[in-house]
Fold this protein.
Amino acid sequence: MAEIDQAKLVEFERNRAQLLGVSAQKQQLQVQSLTLKQALEELEKTKEKKVYKAVGNILIQADTLKVKKELEEKSKSVELRLKTVQKQEDSMINKLNKLKSELEPGQKQAEPEASEKESRK
């Protein structure tokens, strides 16, 4: 295999590993977003003026409207990060597909050569 193909293969593997990390990050953000939306839905339903919120390992009583505002801000932040990670994931997928299409012709040429060597033995 040519040095150029070997370098592209190494780059492909590195990008694939990065894509797995980005995909895991995206999944965590999706779960966080869903959790925040569910919490906001419950706050909409309640008639209570005070609710409990987790702060570290303890629960403290806080004003419902204040907690709702905090959760809305956090939700917006998570959604923005999610969009950014989605763009990053899409870009990496495109890059991997491009590298794959560049590597495939080299792989097809290498396979017959390997078969010929085996048949000569």
Remarks:
- The helical segments are 3-45, 64-120.
